[in-house]
Amino acid sequence: MTSSVIGNVDCKKTMMEKRAKKWGFEGQTGLKATSAVTVRGVLNMLIEGLNKEDSRPVIPLGHGDPSHFPSFRTDAVAENAVIDSLRAAKYNCYSPTVGVSSARRAIADYLSRDLPYTLSPDDVYLTLGCTQAIEIALAVLARPGANILLPRPGYPYYEACATYNGLEVRHFDLLPEKEWAVDLNAVETLADENTVAMVIINPGNPCGNVFSYEHLMEVS
Protein backbone atom coordinates (compact mmCIF):
# COMPACT_ATOMS: atom_id res chain seq x y z
CA MET A 1 0.00 0.00 0.00
CA THR A 2 2.78 2.39 0.92
CA SER A 3 4.66 1.89 -2.36
CA SER A 4 1.42 2.41 -4.27
CA VAL A 5 0.86 5.78 -2.56
CA ILE A 6 4.45 6.82 -3.21
CA GLY A 7 4.07 5.80 -6.85
CA ASN A 8 0.92 7.92 -7.24
CA VAL A 9 2.65 10.91 -5.64
CA ASP A 10 5.64 10.59 -7.95
CA CYS A 11 3.34 10.28 -10.96
CA LYS A 12 1.37 13.42 -10.01
CA LYS A 13 4.62 15.29 -9.37
CA THR A 14 5.92 14.37 -12.81
CA MET A 15 2.66 15.50 -14.44
CA MET A 16 2.76 18.82 -12.59
CA GLU A 17 6.36 19.40 -13.68
CA LYS A 18 5.39 18.76 -17.30
CA ARG A 19 2.47 21.19 -17.03
CA ALA A 20 4.75 23.81 -15.49
CA LYS A 21 7.05 23.76 -18.50
CA LYS A 22 6.60 26.68 -20.88
CA TRP A 23 5.19 25.91 -24.30
CA GLY A 24 7.60 26.58 -27.15
CA PHE A 25 5.09 28.43 -29.30
CA GLU A 26 6.60 31.79 -30.22
CA GLY A 27 6.25 34.11 -33.17
CA GLN A 28 9.09 34.89 -35.54
CA THR A 29 11.09 37.72 -33.98
CA GLY A 30 11.96 39.45 -37.24
CA LEU A 31 8.38 39.34 -38.48
CA LYS A 32 7.10 40.79 -35.21
CA ALA A 33 9.58 43.67 -35.38
CA THR A 34 8.65 44.39 -38.98
CA SER A 35 4.94 44.60 -38.22
CA ALA A 36 5.39 46.81 -35.15
CA VAL A 37 5.10 50.05 -37.15
CA THR A 38 2.36 50.22 -39.78
CA VAL A 39 0.60 53.00 -41.63
CA ARG A 40 -2.63 52.08 -39.87
CA GLY A 41 -0.88 52.13 -36.49
CA VAL A 42 0.52 55.62 -37.06
CA LEU A 43 -2.89 56.83 -38.25
CA ASN A 44 -4.59 55.43 -35.15
CA MET A 45 -1.99 57.11 -32.97
CA LEU A 46 -2.74 60.48 -34.60
CA ILE A 47 -6.48 59.98 -34.22
CA GLU A 48 -6.09 59.15 -30.53
CA GLY A 49 -4.19 62.42 -30.08
CA LEU A 50 -7.05 64.57 -31.38
CA ASN A 51 -8.78 66.92 -29.00
CA LYS A 52 -12.01 65.14 -28.05
CA GLU A 53 -13.63 68.46 -27.16
CA ASP A 54 -13.07 69.91 -30.64
CA SER A 55 -16.38 69.59 -32.53
CA ARG A 56 -14.96 70.35 -35.98
CA PRO A 57 -15.32 67.50 -38.52
CA VAL A 58 -12.21 65.49 -39.32
CA ILE A 59 -11.38 64.62 -42.93
CA PRO A 60 -9.98 61.04 -42.93
CA LEU A 61 -7.10 61.44 -45.40
CA GLY A 62 -5.75 58.07 -44.28
CA HIS A 63 -8.86 56.20 -45.45
CA GLY A 64 -7.82 53.89 -48.28
CA ASP A 65 -11.22 52.60 -49.40
CA PRO A 66 -12.98 55.07 -51.75
CA SER A 67 -16.22 53.05 -51.70
CA HIS A 68 -16.71 54.19 -48.10
CA PHE A 69 -17.72 57.61 -49.43
CA PRO A 70 -20.99 58.29 -51.29
CA SER A 71 -19.24 60.16 -54.11
CA PHE A 72 -17.54 56.94 -55.25
CA ARG A 73 -20.11 54.43 -56.50
CA THR A 74 -19.58 51.24 -58.47
CA ASP A 75 -20.86 51.61 -62.02
CA ALA A 76 -24.27 50.03 -62.63
CA VAL A 77 -22.81 47.93 -65.46
CA ALA A 78 -20.41 46.25 -63.03
CA GLU A 79 -23.12 45.77 -60.40
CA ASN A 80 -25.50 44.16 -62.90
CA ALA A 81 -22.74 41.87 -64.17
CA VAL A 82 -22.20 40.55 -60.65
CA ILE A 83 -25.94 40.04 -60.16
CA ASP A 84 -26.32 38.26 -63.51
CA SER A 85 -23.38 35.99 -62.70
CA LEU A 86 -24.87 35.08 -59.34
CA ARG A 87 -28.30 34.31 -60.78
CA ALA A 88 -26.82 32.23 -63.60
CA ALA A 89 -25.54 29.70 -61.00
CA LYS A 90 -22.59 28.88 -63.28
CA TYR A 91 -19.90 30.00 -60.86
CA ASN A 92 -21.18 28.72 -57.49
CA CYS A 93 -18.20 26.42 -56.99
CA TYR A 94 -14.48 26.50 -56.29
CA SER A 95 -12.70 28.49 -58.95
CA PRO A 96 -9.27 27.61 -60.41
CA THR A 97 -6.38 28.75 -58.24
CA VAL A 98 -5.09 31.07 -60.96
CA GLY A 99 -8.53 32.61 -61.62
CA VAL A 100 -11.53 31.94 -63.85
CA SER A 101 -10.41 31.46 -67.47
CA SER A 102 -12.93 33.95 -68.91
CA ALA A 103 -11.73 36.66 -66.49
CA ARG A 104 -8.08 35.98 -67.30
CA ARG A 105 -8.84 36.11 -71.01
CA ALA A 106 -10.62 39.47 -70.65
CA ILE A 107 -7.70 40.92 -68.67
CA ALA A 108 -5.14 39.64 -71.19
CA ASP A 109 -7.08 41.22 -74.07
CA TYR A 110 -7.40 44.52 -72.21
CA LEU A 111 -3.71 44.76 -71.28
CA SER A 112 -2.56 43.72 -74.76
CA ARG A 113 -4.00 46.90 -76.25
CA ASP A 114 -1.10 48.94 -74.85
CA LEU A 115 1.67 46.38 -75.37
CA PRO A 116 3.84 45.63 -78.42
CA TYR A 117 2.98 41.94 -77.98
CA THR A 118 -0.15 39.92 -77.17
CA LEU A 119 -0.75 38.38 -73.77
CA SER A 120 -2.52 35.05 -73.37
CA PRO A 121 -4.78 34.02 -70.45
CA ASP A 122 -1.87 31.87 -69.22
CA ASP A 123 0.11 35.07 -68.63
CA VAL A 124 -2.50 36.28 -66.11
CA TYR A 125 -2.69 35.17 -62.46
CA LEU A 126 -5.61 36.54 -60.45
CA THR A 127 -5.33 37.05 -56.68
CA LEU A 128 -7.67 38.12 -53.90
CA GLY A 129 -6.37 41.69 -53.77
CA CYS A 130 -2.85 43.11 -53.49
CA THR A 131 -2.10 41.37 -50.18
CA GLN A 132 -2.24 37.90 -51.72
CA ALA A 133 -0.38 39.14 -54.80
CA ILE A 134 2.51 40.33 -52.60
CA GLU A 135 2.57 37.03 -50.71
CA ILE A 136 2.69 34.92 -53.89
CA ALA A 137 5.24 37.10 -55.70
CA LEU A 138 7.71 37.16 -52.80
CA ALA A 139 7.28 33.44 -52.11
CA VAL A 140 8.19 32.71 -55.75
CA LEU A 141 11.24 35.02 -55.64
CA ALA A 142 12.60 33.79 -52.31
CA ARG A 143 15.75 31.66 -52.31
CA PRO A 144 18.72 31.30 -49.93
CA GLY A 145 20.89 34.41 -49.84
CA ALA A 146 18.52 36.53 -51.95
CA ASN A 147 17.68 40.16 -51.22
CA ILE A 148 14.95 42.55 -52.32
CA LEU A 149 15.04 46.34 -52.70
CA LEU A 150 12.13 48.17 -51.06
CA PRO A 151 11.26 51.89 -51.12
CA ARG A 152 11.42 54.00 -47.98
CA PRO A 153 8.81 55.20 -47.14
CA GLY A 154 6.73 52.38 -48.56
CA TYR A 155 3.92 49.94 -47.97
CA PRO A 156 4.96 47.95 -44.85
CA TYR A 157 3.47 44.62 -45.89
CA TYR A 158 6.40 43.99 -48.22
CA GLU A 159 8.79 43.91 -45.24
CA ALA A 160 6.60 41.44 -43.39
CA CYS A 161 6.31 39.06 -46.36
CA ALA A 162 10.00 39.36 -47.23
CA THR A 163 10.99 38.50 -43.67
CA TYR A 164 8.57 35.60 -43.58
CA ASN A 165 10.10 34.17 -46.76
CA GLY A 166 13.70 34.66 -45.63
CA LEU A 167 14.50 37.50 -48.04
CA GLU A 168 17.02 40.12 -46.95
CA VAL A 169 15.43 43.57 -47.12
CA ARG A 170 17.44 46.52 -48.44
CA HIS A 171 15.84 49.97 -48.47
CA PHE A 172 16.37 52.72 -51.03
CA ASP A 173 15.08 56.21 -50.20
CA LEU A 174 12.43 58.20 -52.02
CA LEU A 175 13.56 61.83 -52.17
CA PRO A 176 10.91 64.32 -50.95
CA GLU A 177 12.80 67.29 -52.42
CA LYS A 178 12.47 65.64 -55.85
CA GLU A 179 8.78 64.80 -55.57
CA TRP A 180 9.58 61.43 -53.98
CA ALA A 181 11.74 60.25 -56.88
CA VAL A 182 13.85 57.11 -56.44
CA ASP A 183 17.39 57.65 -55.15
CA LEU A 184 19.12 56.04 -58.13
CA ASN A 185 22.59 56.24 -56.55
CA ALA A 186 21.32 54.27 -53.55
CA VAL A 187 19.84 51.61 -55.82
CA GLU A 188 23.16 51.15 -57.64
CA THR A 189 24.92 50.78 -54.29
CA LEU A 190 22.44 48.32 -52.82
CA ALA A 191 21.83 46.03 -55.78
CA ASP A 192 24.08 43.03 -56.40
CA GLU A 193 24.00 39.58 -58.01
CA ASN A 194 21.66 38.31 -55.26
CA THR A 195 19.00 41.01 -55.79
CA VAL A 196 15.88 39.24 -57.05
CA ALA A 197 13.51 42.22 -57.28
CA MET A 198 13.03 45.93 -56.77
CA VAL A 199 9.61 47.17 -55.67
CA ILE A 200 8.21 50.23 -57.43
CA ILE A 201 4.83 51.48 -56.17
CA ASN A 202 3.30 53.84 -58.69
CA PRO A 203 1.14 55.80 -57.85
CA GLY A 204 3.05 55.87 -54.59
CA ASN A 205 1.77 54.53 -51.28
CA PRO A 206 1.92 56.28 -48.83
CA CYS A 207 3.43 59.37 -50.53
CA GLY A 208 0.80 59.78 -53.26
CA ASN A 209 3.39 60.61 -55.90
CA VAL A 210 3.24 59.57 -59.55
CA PHE A 211 6.52 58.84 -61.35
CA SER A 212 7.06 60.37 -64.75
CA TYR A 213 7.67 58.11 -67.74
CA GLU A 214 11.22 59.46 -67.99
CA HIS A 215 11.98 58.63 -64.35
CA LEU A 216 10.59 55.11 -64.74
CA MET A 217 12.95 54.61 -67.69
CA GLU A 218 15.85 55.78 -65.49
CA VAL A 219 14.87 53.29 -62.80
CA SER A 220 14.62 50.42 -65.25
TrEMBL record:
UniProt keyword Transmembrane present: no
One GO MF term attached to the UniProt entry: pyridoxal phosphate binding
Domain Aminotransferase class I/classII large: 57-219
A Pfam family assignment: Aminotran_1_2
Keywords: Aminotransferase, Transferase
InterPro entries xref list: Aminotransferase_I/II_large, PyrdxlP-dep_Trfase, PyrdxlP-dep_Trfase_major, PyrdxlP-dep_Trfase_small
Gene Ontology CC, one term: cytosol
GO BP terms: L-tyrosine catabolic process
Keyword Ligase applies: no
Protein name (Swiss-Prot/TrEMBL): Aminotransferase TAT1
Organism: Hibiscus syriacus (Rose of Sharon)
UniProt lineage: Eukaryota, Viridiplantae, Streptophyta, Embryophyta, Tracheophyta
